[in-house]
Specification:
The protein is an all-alpha fold and 411 residues long. It has 18 helices and no strands.
């Protein structure tokens, strides 16, 4: 690693403060639009444009990071998001708000890519899963905490936007003030989505499946409970339990993936997701509903950090940002189309949401089993086979064929 674990404190603290602001903003936007008389279609369109902005941001962000570095890119994207939030607080024009939500998505995609590539570039296969787990814990925990601002500051007037602006400004300070080095700047990589798939099909498709599942769960789980006649308070508690499972299981699952072949952990997680979904479909042991939802959140929300960690194992440093960008793009694409397919399933069956999740997780498990049989595992820890090497110069090390083979091991 380029600076030890301390090098990751600044981006993680910045991400945590940003996530609190973004969590508040994600709830503020639909509530404010509803307060000003917008219908469900307009509110849904704002959400769709935000996710489309995530897709657009995932396309070109790598070049910005490669040109100016992680710290400046983080500040630039945060400034863009702050500008958008400031304008939203000043105007109420619906068309302008839709455009601003698109720009918000672009800015947020840039922030995510900066932080993820910062962590991945400086980590090693032996600690990458743990580090990404801390990243997801920071994100989900702070996003949940951001909801608490709704109580004292509400959704009316300019005060909510001032709170968000203050948090966004504060989030830029830890990365900007750190004295420890950020990842080195590399020229834009020639790695595109097709080459990325050739290098790491498991990582790329794992991220896309994660988007399919998370997009469906986030967007439609409250609607599923409403269709079942569950009251609003209980629905909120059940959704909170689901997110809590996703947050609390991040670290143990991430630590486990650093010690064994990550693909085996992904297979186990996928099959557990199938089992939990079947329990929910058949309403088995319904008194344990909160347990199944806790486990479902743990499965669904740990899938992305596992997949992206696996995809970046042994990825050359110069391709790390491009690889992160490609996998974020795959995730965003999945998150955009996932709710559409799951909504159709919900119309066909009472528990259609869980049926769609079971199908995604089963297909993913089968694919990972196939890949496990195709390529050898990536050695990440002390279990690596010892190969005695005589004393040699760095030149001999560079022409050692084993070094090249390790760099090209498929994910």
């Amino acid at each position: 690693m380029f600076g030890g674990f301390r090098s990751f404190v600044a981006p993680l603290v910045g991400l945590t403060i940003f996530s609190a602001a973004n969590g508040y903003l994600m709830s503020l936007v639909p509530l404010r639009l509803n307060l000003e008389g917008s219908g469900s279609f307009e509110i849904g369109l704002a959400a769709a444009l935000y996710h489309f902005g995530l897709l657009l941001g995932a396309f070109r962000t790598e070049r910005i990071i490669s040109a100016i570095g992680h710290i400046r890119a983080f500040a630039a994207f945060m400034a863009l998001l702050g500008t958008v939030v400031g304008i939203q607080g000043l105007v109420s024009d619906l068309v302008l708000w839709q455009v601003l939500r698109l720009l918000s998505g672009i800015a947020v995609a840039g922030i995510f890519l900066v932080v993820e590539s910062w962590l991945l570039s400086g980590s090693e296969p032996s600690n990458r899963g743990t580090l990404l787990a801390l990243y997801m814990i920071s994100y989900y925990g702070a996003s949940a905490a951001g909801q608490m601002f709704l109580g004292p500051f509400g959704v009316e007037g300019y005060a909510p936007f001032l709170v968000i602006l203050a948090l966004l400004a504060a989030s830029s300070m830890p990365p900007s003030l750190t004295r420890l080095p950020a990842p080195p700047i590399h020229p834009p990589s020639a790695l595109n989505i097709f080459k990325l798939y050739q290098l790491t099909p498991s990582g790329l498709l794992g991220c896309m499946a994660s988007g399919l599942a998370i997009g469906s769960l986030y967007g439609l789980l409250p609607l599923h409970f409403a269709d079942q006649g569950v009251d609003d308070k209980t629905t909120g508690n059940l959704v909170a339990i689901t997110i809590l499972g996703g947050m609390l299981l991040q670290y143990p699952v991430g630590r486990l993936s650093d010690r064994v072949d990550r693909r085996k952990v992904l297979i186990a997680i996928s099959f557990l997701g199938v089992a939990v979904s079947v329990f929910l479909i058949l309403s088995l042991f319904s008194t344990l509903m909160w347990v199944w939802l806790f486990l479902l959140g743990g499965v669904i929300f740990t899938l992305y950090p596992l997949a992206i960690s696996h995809g970046c194992d042994h990825m050359p440093p110069e391709d790390m940002v491009a690889a992160t960008q490609g996998m974020l793009l795959a995730y965003s694409l999945g998150a955009t189309i996932g709710p559409l397919g799951s909504s159709v399933a919900m119309k066909l069956a009472p528990n259609g949401l869980f049926v769609s999740l079971a199908v995604v997780m089963l297909a993913l498990a089968v694919f990972f089993i196939f890949r496990l049989r195709q390529r050898p595992p990536i050695i990440t820890g002390p279990e690596e086979v010892f190969v005695p090497m005589p004393g040699h110069t760095p030149v001999v090390s560079e022409i050692n064929p084993r070094t090249d083979q390790d760099a090209l091991v498929d994910k």
